[in-house]
Specification:
This protein is mainly alpha-helical. It is built from six helices and three strands; from the N terminus they run E-H-H-E-E-H-H-H-H.
Length: about 170
Amino acid sequence: MKDDLISIGRMAELNGISVPTLRLYDEKGLLKPRYIDPETGYRYYDTDQNARLDMIAYMKELGMSLAQIAQVLEKEDISLIEELLSQKNEQIHEQMRRLKAQHAAVERAIMSIERYRKSPATGILSLEYIDRRFAFGIDCSHNFYQDDVHSYERLLRELRIRLNEEGLQQIH
């Protein structure tokens, strides 16, 4: 029987993954060896199992967790796959929105540094065009410039809470 089977090392090599990964897949129930030698404990796979391994690799590439992959493989339900992929799609879009906001903030910071470096010496007037900007503020009950740093930090924390409530990232 072992003559038709592939050792765990060879299976890993053929599929470009590690032996520990195959052991993990066995542990998680994703890909059980076709045969385990009772004397040595060595795992052996059938070439037909490459298709399942390809499916696991594809689902991982799509960003699915091992738990989600196990669920899909167990239930073999196309609706479940569609639902999980739709959720993953939304997660990716949210990550892209955050990355775009972060990218814009980095570019603004770079432009501010460039503007600072190019600014005229003290006492020289200059006229500069600055792109349209939006401001978000909160009412302050007192002038925090006259108080200590703790007053400023309390108001800053309140601003962060309000930004979060409005769905705006602090980076804006």
